[in-house]
Amino acid sequence: MKIISTNIGERKEIDYKGTLVTTGIFKYSVDKPIFLDIEDVKGDAICDRENHGGVLQAVYGYSLKHYEYWNAVFPKVDFEMGIFGENLTIDDLDETKIHQGDTFKVGETVLEATVQRDPCYKLGVRFNNMKIVKKFWKTTFCGVYFKVLQTGFVKAGDEFIKIKSCPENPTIADLFVAKRILNGISE
Fold it and tell me: Best exposed site among 40, 68, 117, 173 by fewest CB in 10 Å?
């Protein structure tokens, strides 16, 4: 696995059904290393601290391979890196093969896979199509949140080198499917 793009975003106010909402989902590729800190990515807006950021969700990674799938489903969308709200677009991030607790050396950092990303309406706002949220739940293309065990800079081209494997733990995809069932979302 290798970082294809590092992405950060600013706070943005949007009108959602007549209500002004502040979001950080509008992330875009940057041509410089980004600093992964204990609770977030430096310079990246997190507006909903209840559901994003913090120790267990400091960094969000999403697979470039998933972009191919979504491009076929939503061919009119301009698929810029960061459109899923990810900080790291990774060439081949496979949620069915990454277990909770798996740990990676990436650039100057050490990252531990923690939990899945559950989609909310703000993903629909970013896509300008609320259908993405329901369709997202029906896949295992949820992306991976990482805990930062060692802070530092990462950049495009940095490789994920697995330094700890936890096959006894559920995969990130398993966690996502369990959450989908818990929420009563049918496939």
Answer: 68
How many Å apart are CA 15 and CA 72, to the nearest integer?
Answer: 28
Query: Which helix (H) or strand (E) segment is 35 a member of?
Result: strand 34-36
What is the tens place of the pLDDT at every residue in 122-173? 999 899 899 999 999 999 999 999 999 999 999 999 999 999 999 999 999 9
Strand partners, 15: 20
Q: Please give the structure tokens belonging to residue 137.
A: 């739940």
Residues whose CB falls within 8 Å of the CB of residue 52, separated by 6 or more in sequence, listed in order: 24, 46, 60
**Residue 187 confidence (pLDDT):** 61
Question: What are 31-51's pLDDT values in tens digits?
Answer: 999 999 999 999 998 877 777
Whole-structure pTM value = 0.93
Q: Dmax of the chain from CA atoms?
A: 48
**Closest residue by Cα to residue 91 from 61, 47, 69:** 61
- As a dihedral over the C-alpha atoms of residue 141, residue 147, residue 151, residue 152, rounded to 10 degrees, the angle is 0
Q: Are 95 and 176 in contact (CB under 8 A)?
A: yes
Q: Where are the beta strands (DSSP E) in 58-187?
A: 59-63, 88-90, 103-106, 109-116, 144-150, 152-154, 160-164
